[in-house]
């Protein structure tokens, strides 16, 4: 059983083959909302699609022909279908780890200790959530390639959640042990028992992350194809609307 678990760890420790073969990337931030899509650069909106058929470039409304409106609608629908799905895979992975960690210290320690642990969780996850945001019907994807998303799930998120779990849960057990030492039960827990508990939590988190990585891998070919199709539509729009050329949202990177 241990050798099987080790083999799984080796498989998921490195980026999957498909990611090395797909060079498609988002070169601008994309915000999907029910009423509009915004293309951002340095946190500023440069392009906005309203109602899937109205185009604004740097705040200026662009008059479109029937053919251009149809292309814009196809482009908008493609982004609306794809971006929320890819954001959700990443956010689900982050939330799975955080919910498991936070569940461990619920009801343990003082209010100040819990506030300290939650602040540590927030600080650690801020950089993740600035790259992938899901709030109700709003989705944000920061500029990145499919390779980078694959790396995030395989090689970046796991070790950071592992470290966060050991820091927070280790502190939780320390607080619990101190509290129990002063109780009538005079209970003590050995360091080995503590780290077994932390290790069990880490294993649980890793299994969940492996499932998200497998989900991404299973959809890899479809995701790459969708980005290539979006790139083709985008190129057609740019040929008709030269003002869009500086905002090449979907592109193939070397």
TrEMBL record:
Residues 1-19 form the signal peptide. Keywords: Signal. It comes from the Bacteria. This is DUF2884 family protein. It comes from Rheinheimera baltica. The lineage of its organism: Bacteria, Pseudomonadati, Pseudomonadota, Gammaproteobacteria, Chromatiales.
């Amino acid at each position: 059983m241990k050798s099987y678990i080790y083999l799984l760890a080796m498989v998921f420790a490195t980026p999957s083959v498909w990611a090395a073969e797909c060079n498609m990337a988002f070169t601008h931030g994309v915000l999907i909302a029910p009423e509009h899509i915004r293309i951002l650069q340095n946190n500023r909106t440069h392009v906005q699609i309203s109602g899937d058929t109205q185009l604004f470039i740097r705040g200026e409304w662009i008059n479109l022909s029937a053919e251009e409106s149809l292309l814009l609608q196809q482009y908008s629908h493609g982004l609306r279908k794809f971006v929320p799905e890819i954001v959700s895979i990443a956010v689900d992975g982050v939330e799975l780890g955080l919910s498991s960690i936070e569940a461990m210290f619920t009801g343990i320690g003082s209010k100040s200790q819990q506030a300290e642990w939650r602040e540590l969780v927030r600080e650690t996850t801020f950089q993740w959530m600035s790259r992938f945001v899901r709030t109700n019907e709003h989705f944000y994807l920061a500029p990145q390639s499919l390779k980078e998303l694959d790396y995030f799930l395989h090689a970046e998120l796991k070790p950071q959640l592992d470290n966060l779990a050991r820091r927070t849960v280790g502190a939780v057990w320390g607080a619990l042990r101190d509290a129990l030492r002063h109780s009538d039960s005079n209970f003590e827990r050995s360091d080995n028992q503590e780290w077994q508990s932390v290790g069990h939590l880490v294993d649980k988190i890793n299994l969940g992350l492996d499932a998200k990585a497998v989900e991404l891998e299973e959809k890899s070919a479809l995701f790459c194809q969708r980005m290539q199709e979006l790139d083709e539509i985008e190129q057609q729009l740019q040929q008709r609307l030269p003002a869009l050329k500086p905002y090449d949202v979907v592109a193939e990177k070397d």
